[in-house]
């Protein structure tokens, strides 16, 4: 039996470092090649079957390579991107999710075999795609969690008993005798809310597979709510600074509302961790209202309802 080497145009696709840029071309050419082979109508049945089998196995290898390279490119791009609230989901990242959708559809068409090792091989491709999507979602959720962790690190400077907090309190009290001292604004919270909404809108608009979006948003909400809960638990024995409290209330309320609007189920939204966060912030708010004389309109009240100032 003759052997078949990979054509030069396919080698170029193998060498590509970003599957999203060449996947459509790859799938089209593989389909065209298989159609060409079938249209030859080889008179020897055994050779025709062997040729078709080799082409389909080659297609499997090419699609598998495309999937692996796409996942690697996705992870690399995330690793190099900003870890602050300036991070924005790029169309390229969304396209890489769509490559996985296309790869799954095309593998069913281009690698379909009826029996034996080939069928098992096709099943392995489906499993590879599923695991790759799972990993990509985890990469993205980890990025989102790291960004929130950065926000929490900023407000941690206001922890009770820290040098920064003590110095700030002393400076404000001393200066307030002579001038009106401006209080920390809500820029940190607003920047985070803007980042979340932009990311949600971009993913919703650009990723073609609803199942992937549902999984991503569910894990995103859960991971970041757990992060908030852990941060608060670590400060169980200390009073929150009023600035910390305002930031956390704003973030928690907007997060709950925005993810609900994106279709995250109530069973996920109203988790035990959310209840823990909400109860702690509500208690801190009551204490701060007495101690600080009010929260300037920022409150956990009706945190599961739409805020009038969201638009």
Automatic annotation (TrEMBL):
<dbReference type="GO" id="GO:0045921">
    <property type="term" value="P:positive regulation of exocytosis"/>
</dbReference>
<keyword id="KW-0813">Transport</keyword>
<keyword id="KW-0472">Membrane</keyword>
<dbReference type="GO" id="GO:1990504">
    <property type="term" value="P:dense core granule exocytosis"/>
</dbReference>
<keyword id="KW-0770">Synapse</keyword>
<dbReference type="GO" id="GO:0016079">
    <property type="term" value="P:synaptic vesicle exocytosis"/>
</dbReference>
<feature type="region of interest" description="Disordered">
    <location>
        <begin position="292"/>
        <end position="311"/>
    </location>
</feature>
<dbReference type="GO" id="GO:0008289">
    <property type="term" value="F:lipid binding"/>
</dbReference>
<dbReference type="InterPro" id="IPR014770">
    <property type="entry name" value="Munc13_1"/>
</dbReference>
<dbReference type="InterPro" id="IPR010439">
    <property type="entry name" value="MUN_dom"/>
</dbReference>
<dbReference type="InterPro" id="IPR033227">
    <property type="entry name" value="CAPS"/>
</dbReference>
<protein>
    <recommendedName>
        <fullName>MHD1 domain-containing protein</fullName>
    </recommendedName>
</protein>
<keyword id="KW-0446">Lipid-binding</keyword>
<dbReference type="GO" id="GO:0012505">
    <property type="term" value="C:endomembrane system"/>
</dbReference>
<dbReference type="GO" id="GO:0098978">
    <property type="term" value="C:glutamatergic synapse"/>
</dbReference>
<dbReference type="GO" id="GO:0098793">
    <property type="term" value="C:presynapse"/>
</dbReference>
<feature type="domain" description="MHD1">
    <location>
        <begin position="1"/>
        <end position="70"/>
    </location>
</feature>
<dbReference type="Pfam" id="PF06292">
    <property type="entry name" value="MUN"/>
</dbReference>
